[in-house]
Amino acid sequence: MSAKKEKNVKEKKKISLTSMIFIALIAGAITGMVLHYLVPDSSVKNDVIVEGVLYVLGQGFIRLMKMLVVPLVFCSLVCGSMAIGDTKKLGNVGGKTLAFYLVTTAVAVAVALGIGTLLRPGIGLDMSKIQVNASDIETMESTSLVQTILNIIPDNPIKSLASGEMLQIIVFALIIGVILAKLGERAETVSNFISQFNDIMMEMTMMVMSLAPIGVFSLIARTFATIGFSAFVPLAKYMIAVLIALAIQCFGVYQILLKVFTGLNPVKFIRKFFPVMAFAFSTATSNATIPLSIDTLYKKMGVSKKISSFTIPLGATINMDGTSIMQGVAVMFAAQAFGIHLTPMDYVTVIGTATLASIGTAGIPSVGLVTLTMVFNSVGLPVEAIGIIMGIDRILDMARTAVNITGDAVCTTIVACQNGAVDKEVFNKAE
Question: Whole-structure pTM over 0.85, yes or no?
Answer without folding.
Answer: no
